[in-house]
Amino acid sequence: MLVTGDIHALSSAVSGPVALPDSPGFAEETFAFNAATVHRPDVVLGAADAQDVAAAVKWAAERRFPVSVQSTGHGAELAIDGGLLINTRRLQDMHVDPVERTARVGAGVKWRTVLEASVPHGLLGLHGSSTDVGVVGYTLGGGLPVLGRAHGFAADHVRSMDVVTADGELRRIDADAEAELFSLMRGGKGNFGIVTALEFSLFPFSDFYGGGIIYPGADAAMILAAFRQWLATLPDDASPSISLLRLPDMDFVPAPLRGQFVVHLRFAFLGNREDGDALLAPMRAVSIPLMDTAGPMGYLDVDQVHMDPADPLPFADGGALLKDFDDETVADLLELAGDGSGCPLLLVEIRPLGGALGNAAAVPDAVSGRDAAFLLFLLGFKMPPIAEAVSASIRGILAAMAPHSTGYTLVNFHGEPGDEADRARAWSPAVYERMRSAKSTYDPGNLLRFGHAITGTPAAG
Ligand SMILES: Cc1cc2nc3c(=O)[nH]c(=O)nc-3n(C[C@H](O)[C@H](O)[C@H](O)COP(=O)(O)OP(=O)(O)OC[C@H]3O[C@@H](n4cnc5c(N)ncnc54)[C@H](O)[C@@H]3O)c2cc1C
């Protein structure tokens, strides 16, 4: 238990604000984008810089006090209960090097900020469906990009990182310095330390063609069948995905679509109008769209591809890697989540993997699931009157789809972490065992025990 002297010691070791549950600023520092999750640490630090993170972790280590980290709260799957929460949102340093084609960002930087600096140089980063997500949390979870089939996982392209390990030491690690830690941090999530800065590759591009087509939900069976055939015709620099959407009557939904059940095809392609139109033509012919926004697009509008909600909302989610998206898989999914199924979820999404996502990283990392063909991802709003039904539906659909799954997940799409066996499903067994061993080395006191945390290998003897 903390006493006043402990709080004084923390406050005098750092320059950022320290807040207790009854102090002003506590709610702001602990607030998560996923508003269904309310964090209740014993104390929160708004870290001002990397030295603050190191001093705070050292402070916690001396007291064997658990530590957690949050940047945006997009990945707030489980409430943090007790301990010290370090909020990294003030770590906003960023440098884009257009010659080396790299970016170096502080742990509070979001993808939008990177793109605003890199796109004018004709360079893009491997962000996901929403550029409001934090670069570091996303990349440590592997980072499945919108253009993943072209370039692979974001974690594969990290050059170096600055990390404060559980002993409070700030280390710069890369493929040569602390190679095993560097390997396991990329895809191993926040299990081994708190990253204060990340350096990663950027990719040149010229034309971008993106957007989406929204079809009536009644045509879902026909559209999913056509989608599967069409995928085989696409080059790797085209990354599509498709979802069944039950759109709420809310402001972030375009007015004509509010309250409707629809199918949403998303399309992102590194090419020009002529080639993009030619690739998309078969899907434009399959049914009469309610909306078609696909075409040449300024890259900074890339959030229009997936149209994720931009404002905080309460949600629950979950996912599974699929072996295939064959007739039987499609039929089972439609029975569970199609028209007339009573499914309460906002989104039932299929993201094709393959292309560069199937290649091993040049510098090996912890990202697993490269053998999977598709990702199934489910998300629902935890709002009355469906709040209770949402989590049950996610569990039910994942259980019913288990025969089509590889049995594994991607950590960024895993959803609420369950028991040890459930958590382990985010990595291959070989990687998981290496992670347990590294946990014993880098966090023997299990200070970093929140979120999708694993436990170390018990000491021999
Ligand atoms: C709208 C939306 C769209 C998304 N799209 C994609 C997508 O296309 N592809 C994809 O791969 N993922 C996607 N995600 C998942 C997202 O990448 C994860 O939720 C990720 O963890 C968010 O990171 P964050 O830092 O923004 O969130 P936070 O909630 O702040 O952090 C989540 C977790 O990341 C870890 N973490 C964060 N910062 C640090 C740090 N400095 N050091 C160590 N660990 C840290 C911690 O474990 C923390 O609990 C999406 C999520 C949302 C809500």
Automatic annotation (TrEMBL):
Keywords attached to this entry: FAD, Flavoprotein, Oxidoreductase
Gene3D superfamilies named in the record: 3.30.465.10, 3.40.462.20, Uridine Diphospho-n-acetylenolpyruvylglucosamine Reductase, domain 2
Membrane-spanning residues: none
Entry keyword Flavoprotein: yes
Pfam families listed in its UniProt record: FAD_binding_4 (PF01565)
Domain of life the protein comes from: Bacteria
Alphabetized GO MF terms: FAD binding; oxidoreductase activity
Ranges where the FAD-binding PCMH-type domain occurs: 37-205
Cofactor: FAD
Family under the similarity heading: Belongs to the oxygen-dependent FAD-linked oxidoreductase family.
Protein known as: FAD/FMN-containing dehydrogenase
Species, as recorded: Arthrobacter oryzae
